[in-house]
Sequence to fold (353 residues):
Amino acid sequence: MEIKITRAEVLKEKPDSSTLGFGKIFTDHMFIMDYSREEGWHDARIVPYGNISLSPASTTLHYGTEIFEGLKAYRRPDGEIQLFRPLENARRLNRSCDRLCLPELPEEYFMEALTTLIDLDRDWVPSAEGTSLYIRPFLFGNDETLGVHAVNHATFMIILSPVGSYYKEGLNPVSIMIEDQDVRAVRGGTGEAKCGGNYAASNRAGDRAEKKGYSQVLWLDGVERKYIEEVGAMNVMFKISGTVVTPKLTGSILPGITRKSIVEMLKNEGYKVEERLLSVDELAQSMADGTLEEAWGCGTAAVVSPIGELCYKDKVYTVNEGRIGELTQHLYDTLTGIQWGKAEDTYNWTLKI
Ligand code: PLP
Ligand code: COI
Fold:
């Protein structure tokens, strides 16, 4: 793949690390590539970050033919930059494409686009504790037609954003509301794809939760509203009577790369891990009788995020007295140690750029 690079004439000023937040600031450049059924993927280019032009009839604006990924570049203590399991993102992107009938992108194109863009904007990878460069690859249908069908034209892009903590609480425990009205996804639907529509469908409940003071909602399965699924931007894990329980991947949950990594780490360290259906009643019982020892969410943006409070049907439960649990802290330290290159990567998960 040949990538044509047009450099920005004026580079932006880098932000102060303490003001980063999540996804508000963008780097100097972005990657774009087009697809048509006749030509396949073509015209790979890196251009200055800026607005793009779309037909008002573009399929993505009307029918939500959009999927995305999320990963991070980390600044190591020795100044080098590394990615965490980027091929997993390339593979998930293609599984999402398959579900939405979008053209798949060869993994080597994904990797080359990613590494070339990050290399060009490498000065944007921040080095302050807990900061990183969030990478947002996305792919959307771009036919100029109002007909509903699999697309003939698509666009793949990558934008970069230096970020701090996803939650304003940082590593402090977050409060989560268990949603019992709206549902996010059903098996056979698009829940296991990382498509924009899933997030659009979750906004109403998220907004309700936020108004009540909760950071995000915890979704129940869409059929019986009985089984725990995941949080809006992270998978969930619970330590109940010494065993780590996480909802199994039934088809309506996003198969998180952080989730997969933590399950591998826990098993490797000798912890008992169960990937199974976990009903909200079982969880409520474990909170009531004190067998729920810890709860946390995990994801690229959220890293490992302790859950200090869960609200279900207006009843509020405190987890581990609202403090970060020992295992949660251990997982945060181990995972971030590998991601930021502070600990040896015995799993071979990182890729230096
Ligand atoms: N679940 C949802 C709905 C997400 O948006 C994310 C974030 O990507 C995750 C789970 C965690 O996935 P990952 O660990 O691959 O970032
Ligand atoms: C991520 O963790 O990469 C996510 O996609 C979360 C995002 C929806 C903010």
Q: What stands out?
A: The CA atoms of residues 114 and 122 lie 11 Å apart. The domain at 174-339 is CATH 3.20.10.10 (D-amino Acid Aminotransferase; Chain A, domain 2).
